[in-house]
Amino acid sequence: MDPDRWHRIERVYHSALAVEESRRSAFLEDTCGHDQSLRREVESLLSADSDASAFLEVPALDVLAKDLARQSDSADGNFQDDLQLIGNTVSHYRVLEKLGGGGMGVVYKAEDLKLGRFVALKFLPRELAHHPEAVAQLRREARAASALNHPHICTVHDIDEYEGHPFIVMELLQGDTLKQRIAAKPLKPELVLSFATQILDALEAAHGKGIIHRDIKPANIFVTSRGDVKVLDFGLAKVAPSNLDAALSANTAETRAFVGTLPYMAPEQLRGERADERTDIHTFGAVLFEMSTGQRAFPQRSSAQLGKEILHNLPPRPRTISRTIPVQLEQIILKCLEKNADQRFQSASELGAELDELTKESKSDAHPRVGIASAIMVLLAVAVLVALKLGWFDRADHAPLAQAATRQITSNPMDDPVVKAAISPDGKYVVYTDLQGLHLRNVDSGETHSLQVPEDLCFR
To answer: What are the CA-CA distances from residue 156 to residues 144, 159, 163, 272, 366 (Å)?
Structure first.
């Protein structure tokens, strides 16, 4: 299919998604006119949208890939989901196993016979091996990613072709995608901040090279077994020609086609407008929302409703879903998701500074808890020394216990619990702390003395 033709189909398709289903037929008739082939292509994509839960996860080109696969299967009656490469040697890579596959790629584990290392090979599916837009997207992914040498971006080593099938060679990662890590459950705030900082670090590096990712989503973010984040799939990236050589810019010409994955798109992407750094900040905000709440910022299942929500409505406040989310993190998320790009963070570095400040505050909030425990132990030691000095612990009166027994010594209310306690060697006294201070109690009589806390110690 000619690239211009595909862009035309994609524009009409996304415009149709924003129209109520009852009015789509009239819309397509007005838009497509006498071009019945265009209308059939768009209607084919719209029919694939009937299973919204599956469709909404992938860009429009992936839907086309699946549709072509179905056509191919019906033609030959024999479905094959890979290229039958296992056991073969591709260039100097011996293919060992298939790792996974989807509409836009089939990934294999392979051994680099020259360097003695394991790598991942990503091939286009059979159905798209000769599709101009798909091939351009694969090349764009390889060249954009290879221009970025960064610890939080998946390294692309090479791009090649095998028997007419283009493929790229990438570093082999062990772990899970962020989508798998979330699994509809919110992550702990400290984990959210750790992952968010690493993702943003990768985006800042990409933006510094003039590269806009345009498809940040949990499925395109990988978390290694060591907890390191890797941003994947620069296939939809837009590259500023002034920042890369002519060979790269020739394959990344700016178009007004709709690109991205619908639930994570920024409003300007839906309108087919030019994307910039702030577009990635919006999609990053949608990912940050999902990490924090376990839910999408815009959960509508209907594509038409989803498009309208993204364009016109605000997402729910994250803290209405989970009260464990820090107030400042909620503010950051909502600012990322502003409809007007001018009201968002204007750069990844500006957003990064806010996240760094929040991370520092979160760590400092944890320190007083450690300090309280240490102070309590010191106070208990001081109390025991004071008791010994005053003769409250008389070792001469110590007698062996005839029988062990359980006995309640303190009766503090729920709002003033005993924090720490210690019993004297002779079993006659207990020293304990609660929210009111430090106390010494005679076990038999119940007589209690409040002890003065040294001025240089802070109980709380």
So the answer is: 9, 8, 21, 29, 39
pLDDT digits (tens, 9 = 90+) for 423-455: 888 888 888 887 677 888 888 877 888 776 654
**Which tens digits make up the pLDDT trace of 321-352?**
999 999 999 999 999 999 999 999 999 999 99
Active site residue 215: yes
Q: What are phi and psi of 160, to 5 degrees?
A: -150, -175
* Nearest-angstrom CA–CA distance, 57 and 256: 21
How many other CB atoms are found less than 10 A from the CB of residue 410?
14
3-class secondary-structure state, position 409: coil
Angle at 246 between CA 243 and CA 250, to 5 degrees: 105
Q: Is 0.85 topped by the overall pTM?
A: no
pLDDT reported for residue 460: 42
Could you give the residue ranges of the DSSP H alpha helices within 77-161?
132-146
Q: Where are the chain's structural domains?
A: 1-76, 81-172, 174-346, 366-396+405-451
> Taking 70 as the threshold, does the pLDDT of residue 152 lie above it?
yes
Q: What is the CATH number of domain 174-346?
A: 1.10.510.10
Give the amino acid at 299: P
Q: DSSP alpha helices (H): ranges in 77-162?
A: 132-146
| Beta-bridge mates of residue 429 | 442
Nearest to 163 by CA among 99, 93, 85, 109: 85
Q: Among 36-40, 305-309, 381-385, which stretch is predicted with the lowest mean pLDDT?
A: 381-385
Range 81-172 has CATH code 2.102.10.10 = no
Residues 369, 373, 374, CA angle at the centre, nearest 5°?
A: 115
| Pairing state between β 420-423 and 229-231 | unpaired
71 HSE (CA, 13 A, CB side): 12
Tokens at 30, concatenated: 């007005």
Beta carbons within 8 Å of 42's beta carbon, 6+ residues apart: 9, 12, 13, 16, 28, 32
Question: Which of 209-244 are b and which e, b meaning 16 or more Cβ less than 10 Å from the residue's Cβ?
Answer: ebbbbbbbbbbbbbbeeeeebbbbbbbbbbbeeeeb
Among 62, 215, 233, 280, the active-site one is 215
Q: Which range among 60-64, 290-294, 391-395 shows the weakest confidence by mean pLDDT? A: 60-64
